[in-house]
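Dear support,

Our group has been running a series of protein-ligand predictions, and this particular one with NDP is the one our PI (initials K.S.) wants archived with full inputs and outputs. We had some confusion internally about which version of the output was final, so please treat the block below as the authoritative record. The input we submitted was:
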Amino acid sequence: MRIAIMGSGGLGGYFGARLARGGAEVHFVARGAHLEAMRSQGLRIEGPEPMHLPQVSVTDNPAGIGEVDVVMLAVKLWDTEQALAQIRPLVGPDTAVISFQNGVLKDRALRAAFDARQVMGGVGYVATTIASPGVIRQTGPMQRLLFGEFDGTRSARGEALLAACLAGGIQAELSEQILREIWQKFVFLVGLSGTTTTMRKTIGPIRSHPQTRAFLLDVMREVVAVGRAHGVPLAEDYAEVRLQLADAVAPDMTSSMHHDLERGNRLEVRWLAGGVVELGQAKGVPTPLNRAIHDILCLHAEGGPRHG
Ligand SMILES: NC(=O)C1=CN([C@@H]2O[C@H](COP(=O)(O)OP(=O)(O)OC[C@H]3O[C@@H](n4cnc5c(N)ncnc54)[C@H](OP(=O)(O)O)[C@@H]3O)[C@@H](O)[C@H]2O)C=CC1
Ligand SMILES: CC(C)(CO)C(=O)C(=O)O
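Confirmed final output from the archive:
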């Protein structure tokens, strides 16, 4: 299977390395110092299951790759438009383009750029970051990919990607309810990213203090209410279910948005808490806590000095 990884950072680099290790023909798209390091030293994964691919196919020019079976989109949300323009030469009539980016607004941009049948849905669970050029560091053992057709069918291309993932040791699942999966992650992520980034704390203290615990739960309840208003089949008490996940993860776990704030990077808040506000407004669902998170973080959204 020919797979292109558009954006070879924490998410794309990690899962691309596993796919390549499993025998798939993987072409990474990268840029800057990370591209140069991948060219000269390959790709290294640090963490619970370290690995080193001494030679990888990597380029900043997707046109040189040609058509592929699957494009995995893994750039930060603010880079989506540029990335979509660049991947055009990779996409043939049967190519599946799958965004594993965070949030629920990501697939709008894909549907605007490609034919609906070229777009599959995806969700990625992992905690990774580029530690230095050519090196991805994973925190904790969690690693999971879910993907599927939006019409719920188990397609041959979905099965083929599943086989490639499993061969690489990825905990992967071909979902017949991918829209619900995307929202289920969104509920947790909006709660985790909104609290850890505004409070500048990991999940441990946040879930332990009654006041911040209640805030976390109420933030997630707003996301559930908005999803339900948009027809997503989320149980009414789904925020409570996600609170159990927040209780189960390591106390030092935090969100990628919190890391981005500490590093002075741009923030994806416009698509996370901001996305909840936007989708809530469309259906008349009040989202005051997500509005507060978005407002509090807006001065940092375009990046700033390092805090960590
Ligand atoms: N990392 C994680 O643990 C998880 C991340 N996600 C989501 O996945 C998405 C990606 O996040 P993450 O992997 O952390 O981000 P990273 O910043 O680690 O990786 C993105 C990479 O893509 C590169 N890139 C962006 N645009 C282009 C381009 N046009 N051509 C070539 N390279 C490009 C970036 O380069 P540059 O640095 O120069 O911008 C960067 O190296 C986000 O939506 C995030 O929320 C979801 C689950 C877990
Ligand atoms: C919550 C987590 C770590 C799960 O993958 C994530 O997606 C993020 O923080 O961006």
